[in-house]
Amino acid sequence: MARVSMERHSQRLVTAFIASGMLFMLLPGTFLGVWNLIGISQQRTLNSLSAAWLQAHGQAQIYGWVGSFILGIGFYSLTKMQSTLSFPVCAAWTSWTLWTLGIAMRWTGGVTGWQWRILLPLSGVLQLIACLLFYRSVRRHRPADPAHHPPRREAWMVIVIAATIAFLVAVTVNFFAMTHLALYGTSPALPHVFDQQLVVLAVWGVLVPTIWGFNARWLPVFAGFKKPDGIRLLVAYGLIVASVVAVFLQWLPIAAVLFLLAALLAIDALHVWQPAVQPAKLLHVHKTFPFFIRVAYVWLVVSCALDALAVRNDHAGGIWGASRHALTVGFIAGMVFAIGQRVLPAFCGMRILWSTRLMFWSLLLLHVGCALRVTLEPLAYESYWMFAWKLLPYSAFVELTAVVLFAINIIGTLLHPPAHLRP
Ligand code: HEM
Predict the structure, then answer these.
(1) Residue 73 falls within a domain, yes or no?
(2) Alpha carbons 268 and 126: distance in angstroms, whole number
(3) What distance in Å separates the CA atoms of residue 351 and residue 339, rounded to the nearest whole number?
(4) For ligand 1, is residue 321 a contact (CB within 6 Å)?
(5) Is 56 close to ligand 1, i.e. is its CB under 6 Å away?
(6) Would the CB of 46 count as within 6 Å of ligand 1?
(7) What is the CATH number of the domain that holds 138?
(8) How many distinct structural domains can be found in the chain?
């Protein structure tokens, strides 16, 4: 009985994290992103837009959306492995409340400028406490059956744990940065170079390794891929760490080469582009699921190649921007759309995905929109083809439609009764 109640608690909690994450994805994240792109396209320069607005959009997407999903799934995973009946109910709900408030404050302070000297550091401290509560719960976790615990940690576990520590590091650095900004800054925007370094820390230090870790764990089952090569995956992770350090030291050419090597090695280690060795488990998801997983990795390589190109050839932010978009939308959002629609229905109360067709269309439109944006952004921003400015906003509308379809599908799933309660 206690086990059932613990399971219900964790399902409600993960649902809360997913719901708030999707809200941040839709409104402060994507709508602001679309608005920003329309503004940039009208003025025909990236410099026309407030840096605080750009940063607010990035924060809402990285921490508000994907960060909320990571915390929710992280807490949920603890119940699946807990030996005692002690799901950290209080810590988990406090973490959700503080995290959600912190993200909302960061966005409000950045976009409206209202009381930003108070809101920004306050948001930083709330996010940090929320993250510490999660971290403490993980440290207290004991395996369900210590007798069957593997003698050595598998590569995917090592990478997920390292990414969890990097999450804490990123949120801590963010807190100090917000405090410094509030004391000495003149606007709610971080200096450009430091902001870009923080984006790299969050994206490459936290999100990409988390995806690789869970891909290593799940894709052999979900997509039928050959079991990952743990050593190669760990080397790829080591290259990421070296690249992030290189970015902070401003050795950008070295970082670009290391990112590309890391991506290629991870693709090889995960056997993403090799034929599957067993049938994929496609019940209740669209049959194109393995295809879209492979496409996401194409974006990872495109992003790294553009990054390397940008080091010497970027003059107006167009090639950097395209590289970042290929990574955040093509790889990260593409992966969250595919894996999320595969696992979230079960995590949120043993439900079934509402519509496999919506899943397909959300993924297809996301990748079409991303392809448009990544092609057009360098052409427009770098003044290679001025007509591209007129086409760029369409990429944002296509991506917006994809995001809305994804949200409708998850909301539809949550509104329908769980599979075992259906007539
Ligand atoms: C879905 C539609 C999206 C649109 C229309 C959009 C639009 C934009 C625009 C116009 C910029 C300004 C820089 C540039 O011109 O390249 C930007 C920056 C950024 N975006 Fe997006 N974006 C979207 C999705 C995402 C997603 C899903 C993520 C992350 C998961 C993301 C993360 C970022 C980050 C980190 C920045 C840099 C912020 C900074 O400089 O601090 N975006 N985006």
Answers:
(1) yes
(2) 39
(3) 15
(4) yes
(5) no
(6) yes
(7) 1.20.120
(8) 1
CB of residue 396 inside a 6 A radius of ligand 1? yes
And the tokens for 9? 């608690």
Locate tokens 């696992």: which residue? 343
Centre of ligand 1 from the C-alpha of residue 60, in Å:
10
The reported pTM is 0.94
Q: How far apart are CA 156 and CA 173, in angstroms?
A: 25
Tell me: the pLDDT tens digits for 342-355?
999 988 888 899 99
157 lies in a domain?
Answer: no
Q: Looking at ligand 1, which atom is closest to the CA of residue 198?
A: 41
Decide: 259 and 304 in contact? Cβ < 8 Å: yes
Whole-number percent of the chain with pLDDT over 70: 94
Mean pLDDT taken over the chain: 92
DSSP secondary structure string, 135-147? HHHHHH---S-GG
* 332 Cβ inside 6 Å of ligand 1: yes
Give yes or no for residue 174 CB within 6 A of ligand 1.
Answer: no
Tell me how far the alpha carbon of residue 30 lies from the centroid of ligand 1, in angstroms.
Answer: 8
Residue 50 belongs to what domain range? Answer: 1-149
Q: Is residue 202 part of a domain?
A: no
